[in-house]
Records
---
Amino acid sequence: MNLYCNAHAFFFRHETVNIHTHDKPEWFAQKVNPLGKVPVIQLDDKIVFDSKIVNGYLDATYPGPKVVPSDPFLAAQGQMILELWERVSYPH
């Protein structure tokens, strides 16, 4: 997400808040993401979480380079990589 935000800094101001993935502050799950996962973006009073959802939201909202490729196979590959990453990072 940080790379995407840096690439689009021309379009919006942003602040990075680092959250330790294994020692999250209590307020994070209470006020930001009830699933307790990152990444999360907040634009004014709008909060969007989950990697795939954030990527789609940013692609739909801002012009310029996209996070999700327009080629369906490349997009599917990216989603598969995200799914694998989430299963390793957040085992059930």
Note: The beta strands are 40-43, 46-49.
---
Amino acid sequence: MGRKDRDQGFVGKLREMIDCGLAAIMSVFGMSDKADQEITLEAGTHWMCTCGKSANYPFCDGSHKGSGMGPEKLELEEPTTVPVKRPSEGE
């Protein structure tokens, strides 16, 4: 599967999950229900850190390079408040 296919699949899945609620969004990003904080994201495209190494967490800053991981693209049609919990080692 190419990146374009993966991104389109992710975006479609995310749109479906937004319709299902916040718990679904949390699970996509590996977040537990015990968030460290909540942030409100504006409508638009956001690149979310999945490795937990970003100095600008929860946003990707490229710190994942060489780890085999990469950011997840999050597109929002309206401002949305999301819980944020930095992944632990092994998550």
Note: The helical segments are 3-20, 22-28.
